């Protein structure tokens, strides 16, 4: 009879095979996550580190950096922008420290963070809840899920590509179409005050481009410049330890003014010249009235096209002023 393996042998081989091939990475992952609770963070460790430098407690510093890849869209009427970015966070988790010599010299381990947060069902580690305060769409859905890179000293680096979609309080629209639009984005923890989490700049806090697909071409808006600064909102009365630190990113967009010069300003000049030329036509000519009316209607239609690109607001733009002159 042909040889048949017993069920016990098959079960032993099936369960032992994964263990045999896990290697140092598998052993390290099991050791780090065996008693790891991704829903909490040991805040007392951050407080002890802060009190070593001063008498007051302070939260865990979370470094933030944003690489601005390109401008996807700017919706002036709805006060919204859409930018493709690489969003990066870096912090220290004392529970993720190991001796590399005990794991074959392994100094870096990739751990999964799903659903945009450490509290996600498939996530393996805790993450700080850094949020875009003036968001038009949640960063949990607009940014991709990605692995976090953990170093042996407990440093966690989490980089994700995706979109930032803030709701903007635009600055500079009064110079339309020669405007540089400014939009401020505000990042901070939504659930934890500065006693627990403190966002700080990673190097300069931002970078621009860096790959072959970065930047804009044949597009109305392009990224002109970016600046980043730290700001701290004072504590509420009666709660002196809980201030609210944030990072403010001021993004400036440059509009391509050339199409408006060709299609609006020069057109208005030509239509006004045509409108005045109708007075040189003899009164007995029947086309005199038609020429004037046609020039007027074309000028009004041009104004309607421009008005559709601007919000209905009390402020007066450069183009609105020029339409009164023309």
Write the layout of secondary structure elements.
Layout: H1 7-33, H2 43-51, E1 60-75, E2 80-97, E3 108-113, E4 130-132, H3 139-142, E5 146-151, E6 153-164, E7 180-189, E8 197-208, E9 221-233, E10 244-255, H4 258-277, H5 287-307, H6 318-325
Parallel strand pairs: 1-8
Antiparallel strand pairs: 1-2, 2-6, 3-5, 4-7, 5-6, 7-10, 9-10
List keywords for this structure.
single chain, 326 residues, alpha+beta, six-stranded mixed beta sheet, 10 strands, 27% helix
- How many helix segments? 6
Q: Would you identify the regions where 5 or more consecutive residues have pLDDT less than 50?
A: 10-20
Our measurement of the CA-to-CA distance between the termini, rounded to an integer number of angstroms, reads: 103 Å
- Helix and strand pattern: HHEEEEHEEEEEEHHH
Shape descriptor: elongated
Mean pLDDT: 85
Number of strands: 10
Rounded radius of gyration (Å): 30 Å
Strand order of the largest sheet: 3-5-6-2-1-8
Largest sheet: 6 strands, mixed
């Amino acid at each position: 009879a042909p040889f048949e393996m017993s069920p016990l042998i098959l079960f032993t081989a099936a369960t032992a095979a994964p263990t045999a091939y896990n290697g140092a990475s598998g052993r390290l992952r099991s050791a780090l996550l065996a008693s790891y609770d991704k829903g909490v963070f040991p805040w007392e460790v951050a407080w002890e580190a802060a009190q070593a430098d001063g008498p007051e407690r302070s939260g865990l510093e979370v470094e933030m950096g944003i690489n601005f890849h390109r401008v996807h869209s700017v919706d002036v009427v709805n006060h919204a922008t859409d930018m493709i970015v690489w969003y990066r966070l870096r912090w220290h988790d004392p529970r993720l420290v190991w001796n590399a010599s005990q794991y074959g010299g392994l100094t870096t381990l990739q751990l999964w963070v799903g659903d945009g947060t450490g509290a996600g069902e498939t996530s393996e580690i805790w993450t700080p809840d850094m949020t875009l305060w003036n968001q038009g769409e949640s960063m949990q859905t607009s940014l991709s899920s990605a692995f976090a890179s953990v170093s042996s000293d407990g440093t966690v680096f989490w980089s994700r590509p995706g979109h930032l979609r803030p709701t903007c309080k635009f600055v500079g629209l009064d110079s339309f179409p020669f405007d540089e639009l400014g939009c401020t984005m505000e990042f901070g923890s939504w659930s934890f005050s500065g006693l627990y989490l403190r966002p700080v700049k990673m190097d300069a806090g931002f970078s621009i481009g860096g790959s072959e697909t970065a930047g804009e071409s044949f597009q109305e808006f392009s990224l002109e410049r970016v600046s980043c600064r730290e700001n701290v909102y004072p504590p509420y009365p009666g709660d002196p330890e809980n201030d609210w630190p944030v990072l403010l990113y001021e993004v400036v967009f440059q509009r391509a003014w050339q199409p408006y010069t060709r299609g609006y300003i020069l057109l208005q000049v030509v239509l006004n010249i045509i409108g005045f030329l109708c007075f040189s036509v003899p009164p007995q000519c029947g086309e005199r009235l038609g020429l004037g009316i046609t020039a007027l209607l074309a000028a009004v239609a041009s104004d309607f096209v421009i008005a559709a690109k601007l919000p209905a607001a009390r402020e007066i733009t450069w183009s609105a002023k020029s339409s009164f002159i023309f």
